[in-house]
Amino acid sequence: MNAYLLFIVSFMILAWGVESYVSLLNLRALHPELPREFSDTFDAASYAKSQEYTRIGSRFGLIASSVELVVLLAFIFLGGFPVVDSIAKSFGFGNIITGLLFFAILSLLDGIVGLPFSIYRTFVIETRYGFNKTTPLTFVMDRLKGMLLGVVIGGPLMAAVLWFFEATGPAAWLYAWATVTVVSLALQYLMPKYILPLFNSFTPLPKGPLRTAIHDYAESVGFLANDLFMIDGSKRSSKANAFFTGFGKKKRIALFDTLIDKLSTEEIVAVVAHEVGHSACGHILKLFLLSTLRTGATFLLLSLFLNAEGLYQAFGMQSQSIYAGFVFFMLLLHPFSLLISLGTQTLSRRFEFQADAFAARTTQTPGALISGLKKLSVTNLANLTPHPAYVRLHYSHPPLLQRIRAIQGVDV
């Protein structure tokens, strides 16, 4: 077996094995007894329901990941990549358009494989536990809009990157890095006003006690948000959330309508304070810079492997092409990406602790943040006792029990 293929396939199977084992550890970590910190929020029935939701979701995830691995391995060993390449070339276009067709066909095939699992998760599992509000029409439209955005934004961007690597020589990775960085930065400004509203309705938060309380808090910490919005998250799910997006004058705080329905004004202000904390502590900028550096390193490494003949032979390709090299390199890079993600997740969890501390100090009401987080955990059927290994691998936020104890230790 080709050395590149042996490495890629071995680590695919290893990664699947590790993730499956960690998922099983997480299932075994489900405790029958409710942690005492949640005795005022969960009753026996809701706690049992949250554990059952975790159990069902984890088992379904194991099945989905196993099927997807088998399909990918079959695709590789049955010569799927050369077939897709020949289909893309059959239209007779130049290398760049052919490359875009190659990416589009692979993306379509990936979507087809994942679609049954997405449908089952949305319309069976999420419905069974009272979360799903998505209609079949909304489900279809979300995917069509996502595909359209991929064509409108991703198409020209990928065409530019392909052209750089085809026409500009050794400095191609720098041009590609700069272009992707500029587009990513532009999207930070475009997302709040033009892209997110394609999927959800953003309505200004009505005047009243809640808007006044949020405005007064934001003013007290010198945070100038351009807009306060309510988002119709309830049209897809009964889960509650809030988020902050945008840079500079385009900053936007969005509260799910489900959040507004379930939390008190004081608790919502505390949740907003947490989101403001991410901005005040520079987390958004730091994560953007980290992502930018990672993108640059990826393009640099890509430039070193694009001419590796063995990489193309590993997948049965009769000729080398930049667009196929992109895909094969990403498969080669996958195990290293998983390792990098461990560091990124660790940093993200640290940022969440910092944002919690910021919210507790600036609102002077740590109890409101704790009670709000507890209510959200009931609403979202959160796993209260995740295994530490599962947390390290998958959690961008610390487990709720750790967050509560950290907030209780904040000096206000």
Automatic annotation (TrEMBL):
Top-level taxon of the source organism: Bacteria
Localization annotation: Endoplasmic reticulum membrane
Active site annotation, chain numbering: 275, 356
Presence of keyword Hydrolase: yes
Cofactor(s), names only, from the UniProt record: Zn(2+)
Gene3D superfamilies: Metalloproteases ('zincins'), catalytic domain
Transmembrane residue ranges: 6-27, 60-84, 96-123, 144-165, 171-191, 287-308, 320-342
Keyword Protease: yes
Parts forming coiled coils: none
Residues in Peptidase M48 domain copies: 207-409
Domain CAAX prenyl protease 1 N-terminal, residue spans: 30-200
InterPro entries cross-referenced by the UniProt entry: CAXX_Prtase_1, Peptidase_M48, Peptidase_M48_N
Sites where the protein binds Zn(2+): 274, 278, 352
Entry GO MF terms: metal ion binding; metalloendopeptidase activity
Keywords: Endoplasmic reticulum, Hydrolase, Membrane, Metal-binding, Metalloprotease, Protease, Transmembrane, Transmembrane helix, Zinc
BP GO terms, sorted: CAAX-box protein processing
Cofactor stoichiometry and binding remark: Binds 1 zinc ion per subunit.
Membrane topology: Multi-pass membrane protein
Recorded family membership: Belongs to the peptidase M48 family.
Name of the protein in its database record: STE24 endopeptidase
